[in-house]
Amino acid sequence: MLRIIKQNYIFMESIYLALIVLLFLLAASDLWVGVSNDAVNFMNSAIGSKAAKFRTIVVIAALGILCGAIMSNGMMDIARHGVFKPDLFTFNEVMTIFIAVMVTDIVLLDVFNSFGMPTSTTVSMVFELLGASFALAMIKTWGAPGTSFGDYINSGQALGMITAIFISVGIAFAFGTLIMYITRLIFTFKYKVRMKFKIGIFGGLAITAIMYFMLFKGVKNLSFMTPETKSFIDGNILVILLVCFVVLSVVMQVLHFMKVNVLRIVVLFGTFALAMAFAGNDLVNFIGVPLAGYSSYVDFTGSGAGNPDTYMMSSLLESARTPIGFLVGAGIIMAMTLALSKKARRVTETEVNLSRQDAGNEMFGSSRVARSLVRMASSAGNAILRITPEKAQKFVESRFQRPVEAVNENAAAYDLLRASVNLVVSALLIALGTSLKLPLSTTYVTFMVAMGSSFADRAWGRESAVFRITGVLTVIGGWFITAAVAFISCFTIAMIMHYGGFVAQVVLITIAVAMLIHSNINYAKRKKADKGDALFYKMLSSTNSAEIVKMLQEHVGKNVAEITDGFSTLLIDSTDGLFNEKLHALRKSLNSVKKYKVVLKSLRRREIICLRRADVAVAVKLSTPFHLLHNALFQLYYSLLRICRPSLEHVDNNFLPIDPNDAEVFKFLRGKVVILMNEMAGNFAELNLADGEEIQKECASLKREISDFRDKMMVDIQTQNCDITATTLLLHLLQELEQILHEIDRLIYNMRKFARLAADTAQPKPL
């Protein structure tokens, strides 16, 4: 009997050891997907202001992460007993909670990364822990009448953490707006000529503040700090700060006189500090749960208890003692993610574009709420202006006048002054939360500080405010969705794992890993197929006019080819839907056509932004063929719209079908049109315009064929007993087919003209 019990114990211990190994494997994956999302938190300001090369920014951020990881031990208690009461849960139940959290977290964060949306790893972890522990608490209350959820969950502490997380949104936006507004009033956009004696104080104050919150609040909690040293720091903190401020101000002023860019130092130091704050505050989100699971396993196996369903996890009430090796290993994985993750760069692009100073690629559309907010803000601004003295208005306006060279010459999204404010304010708020052991969301804080500073900096002009507010609301909405999805998903997974046991746990872990691999494969394929965005950002970062024009020609050609190719498919689908009387196919075609309006508007805006970056004389020459190209694309869109809508209405009303003989003739003509569209698309994609004249001749010939068929139809409608509704619709379709040929001719003509002018501007002028 003892032998059987011993064998069962060894088997059970092996199973849980396997689960611990899987937990750490999931932790490594979670570190990768989590940092891919959170890299935007500490790198966006340095990247947006182009304070240094991307490689340099990554190295500085990686060093900050390694330092922050070593200092993050105190935050690990949140995963152990911050949300639920572990002494009322068994070892088996605790392991179920931890595995459910990790499985949910990996899938959830990867989905947000794939869409390029920044979300909060803190919120996801807290709500996942809540969801899983709520599921187990529900099961336990069912089996123990008289108990309640409050007995198992730290509802007060959990509510405090959640409140702190969401309040940080408003606080971060308010502080970002206020401090940026004051900073811009002091330095203006012409800060390079106004910082002679101010920059030393600004740099000294910024770095002193960062050092206080990031170093003193973190270093004094390290294990090698003696009680005497901690007591000395606490007792002399004001003196230490004053000395640091004076010394650093002098150093910054001297560096400025030595022609060193002090703001660049502040931005890079702030990047280091914010990366350290991120690791110190958010490392618990990635490895806190696996480490709590490992601690539980060590306690269970060391106790000699044989039954994991009865052994209670009171040991998790103690503070975490994380081995330094785990922290360093986690820091290394996070640093590698910064350098290698493509999804991290996509998430960064979202925030940088929402806060960029000049016109850029507006990633979001317009929404009714955003339009209402803009109107309300405009009305409030006008009301304030009416009661503000005229002298004060002129003074403020003079401080916010933005010269052409306000943004860096290397096409930065905003200047170093705003980047400094973003980093300093974010670092202070996050470090304060860390010192109080509040799991503030670094994503929420840094994102809202960046939005507040861009708002104060008047980056949200009337042309872009609606789009940017829509983007901010979309991101914030995604945060609330994160909380709801994290809770519900983890609740469901914990339930399945509890009743399904070890088999269900292994199956769900396998599914999560498979989803992660599948997501990354699909993302890689999408990035490989979508080269337009890469070319667009390359144009934005270039300052060479000839190079911009060359890339713009390639961008226009490839996009016109792609859109025309899509239009040719929709032309076939919509008219086949009419002839075959397929209502569903027609509705699908109409919806597909409507989506192209947003695509065309976005494409036109992006290319105009790039054209404006070329020399004025060059841009003026290229403007006419460029705009005529886009007008022709829009006319193609409207032609397809005028084909789809009446065709759908005809079939939806059950009118008589088109005569089969006439339909066959139309299909024959349509086939020729589609061939010409495809030939043109192929030539545009390869920028091969030599065959353009031949396609134009074929268009003219085909127009005559369509005209002859239309004349025949007009005779038939007068002399034969044909259905007027069906025949009229077919005449309408022939007219649109002819219009499509006309637009193909215009596209080729203007593309050839655009290419010729682009080539002329690239030629060196004779001396």
What does this structure look like?
The protein is globular and about 105 Å long. It has helices spanning 2-49, 54-70, 77-82, 91-114, 121-143, 155-187, 198-219, 227-235, 237-257, 262-303, 324-340, 342-355, 368-387, 390-399, 416-435, 442-456, 465-529, 532-541, 545-579, 583-612, 616-652, 660-685, 692-719, 724-762. Helix 1 (2-49) crosses helix 17 (465-529) and helix 4 runs antiparallel to helix 10 (262-303). It contains 24 helices and no strands.
List the helices and strands and how they pair.
Elements: H1 2-49, H2 54-70, H3 77-82, H4 91-114, H5 121-143, H6 155-187, H7 198-219, H8 227-235, H9 237-257, H10 262-303, H11 324-340, H12 342-355, H13 368-387, H14 390-399, H15 416-435, H16 442-456, H17 465-529, H18 532-541, H19 545-579, H20 583-612, H21 616-652, H22 660-685, H23 692-719, H24 724-762
List keywords for this structure.
767 residues; mainly alpha
Tally of helical runs: 24
Shape summary:
globular
Strand content: under 5%
Percent in helix: over 70%
Q: What's the gyration radius in Å? A: 32 Å
Mean pLDDT: 78
Spans where pLDDT lies below 50 across 5 or more residues: 1-9, 405-409
Largest sheet: none
Structural class: mainly alpha
The H/E string reads HHHHHHHHHHHHHHHHHHHHHHHH
Head-to-tail CA distance between termini: 103 Å
Count of DSSP E strands?
Answer: 0
